[in-house]
Every structure is written in C-alpha cells, then in structure tokens.
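Weekly modeling sync, notes
Attendees: AB, CL, MP (scribe)

Item 1: holo prediction request
CL wants a bound-state model with magnesium ion before deciding which constructs to order. AB pointed out that an apo prediction alone won't tell us much about the pocket. Agreed to run with the ligand included and paste results into these notes for async review.

Input as submitted:
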Amino acid sequence: MSLKQVFEEHPERRYIMFGGKGGLGKTTFSAATAYWLAQQGKRVLVFSVDPQASLSDIFQKDIFGKGPVKIMDNLWAQEIDADQHIKAYQQEIRKKILDMYGFEEVPEEIEQYIQASSAEPAMEESAIFDLVPLGHALYYLSMAKVYDEWINKITKLREEMREYEEMVSRLKRQKETEEDQILKELQYIRGRINASSRILTDKEKTGFFFVVIPEEMILIDTNKAADLFAKFDVPIMGYVVNRVIPQELLQQNIPSYLKNRIEMQNKYLSQIDGTFGEKVAARVPELERDVAGLDMIRRLSEIMFGQ
Ligand SMILES: Nc1ncnc2c1ncn2[C@@H]1O[C@H](COP(=O)(O)OP(=O)(O)OP(=O)(O)O)[C@@H](O)[C@H]1O
Ligand SMILES: [Mg+2]
C-alpha cells in the first residue's frame, strides 16, 4: 500500500509520528508529510522537542520556543523548548512548596530533589509530549507505566493520610482541612501521563511510521524496536525506506563503487519487503542534496506521495 493510500484510508488518524534511529530522516519526513496533508486541505501542526531546533532548520525559519508558527496555509510548526518548560515547572513547584509550608526558602533536600528530577532524561519526556526519536518513545512508554504506578502509590498514601487528618480535625471540631495541594498536583501529573500514553496507544487516532534505510544494522534494530512497540501496544502504520539509490543509475556507465552500493541496498530492500511486506509504504530516493526550504520539502512530498 502506498503512503497516499494509507493516509486516505485512515482519515481518522490524527497523531502521526515518525520514529527511527538518529539521522535517518524523521524530521524530513515529518515536514514533507505535514506539507502534503496541508496541501490536501487538512490543518496540520508539525512539532518536535528536539533541542537541536531541527524544524527551524528544515523550514528555514526561527520557530524554536515560539509556540505554533504559521508556515503556510493550513500548516503550523512548533518546536518546544523543553529546557525552558522544565525550568518553569521547577519554579512553579518551588513556589507551591514555599506557599504550602510557609518556608522562607526551599529546604536543601527538596531543592536537591527538584534539581535531580531534571537531570533525568525521563523528565523531558514527561513534561512534554513528544516522540521524535525512537528510543525516546519507548523510554517514555516504559517510564509512563513506572510513573503511573509510583504516583498511584503516593496518591493512595496521601489519600489515606488525608482521611486520617480529616478524622482528627473532626474530633477536634476544627473546620475542614485545607484543600490538599500535593494531592491535586499528583492527580494532575497522573492525568497528564495517562492522557499522553492513551494518545500513544490509541489504535484509531494514532499511527507510527518507522523510518529505515537499506542497511543491515538498521534492520536488526528496527526489528527489535517493532517487537517492543508491539509489546507496548503502539500501532504501527507503516515503514518508509529512505536513502534508496536510484536503480536507473545501473543503466548508466557508473563506477563499480556505486554499483556495489546499489547491489548491497537491493539485498536489504528485498529483506525489508520480506519482513515488513504490505507495511512498506514508500521508498524514498537519496536526493542530490539535503532537504531544507519549502521548495525542497514540496519536491520530497511529491516523491513520497506520488504526484
Ligand atoms: N532522501 C534524502 N536525500 C537527501 N538528504 C536526506 C534525505 N533524507 C534525509 N536527508 C538529510 O539527512 C539529514 C538527516 O535527516 P533528518 O534530520 O530528517 O533525520 P532525523 O531522523 O530527524 O535525525 P535526528 O535523529 O537527529 O532527529 C538532513 O540533513 C536531511 O536533509
Ligand atoms: Mg530530527
């Protein structure tokens, strides 16, 4: 099935993600797909939390940390400054702790904890919903399950404590205990985590594409990743093969170096077809230069979606 058909047959898919190893073409395909969908009259937001500001590069526009920026009719791009969001969230937590307990400053141990939470890569993925690189997506999913359990436990403890506190205050005939800020915060975080894992594993609205290239190592890794995705129930919409050297070159008088590379690719291309079969949605040729700027993005989208 072609990429175009896949999209036409699934208009209900609203969250499209490109996963794959570093540098294979996730950002490029996200941009080209977003461009094509926008041209089809859909309102599209393409976004990333990549600190490298790769969407800014490909659209040749400074969009990093600026919210959704309009690229053209129907198309917006957004690059979230995750560091900035984490800092803001930490500041908010500090303020809540100060307000709640009436401290002059955040106690050292708590401050250390707040700092440590941002050192962990998981923090980045839990603060904002994004799945650009493959590893992150899987990491996020596994962390979501861990967090969820953890937060469940704390919430339960907190609820029990609260019941107890209420009982004590009833006995003392005090007025109701103040609204529990901590409990509210925990429930809020849990809600966010659940909502984002729900989107990720929503078989109707979400679709994942794997970007692969015809090379042995990539195929081994992709097979492993596909198994993991299946385990976490993430719906895979298809595979897009990138950087395929055009076969037509074989008709020309080309150096044996290039001929060998084409033959090597052919071997892995047939393995890809053998393994992923119908799910291989497109083969994208190695272009003569990097993909950047709307003209190049348009050209690539025409190749990918066949016009
Ligand atoms: N078919 C292609 N022909 C020529 N250049 C390509 C092709 N596909 C991707 N590129 C180029 O390869 C580079 C890497 O692509 P891209 O940034 O999309 O990869 P990525 O998977 O998003 O990388 P990262 O893991 O770093 O986010 C870019 O410079 C892009 O323009
Ligand atoms: Mg990228």
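Recorded for review: Residues 26-27, 50, 54, 132 surround magnesium ion (ligand 2) (CB under 6 Å).
Action items: CL to compare against the apo run; MP to circulate these notes.
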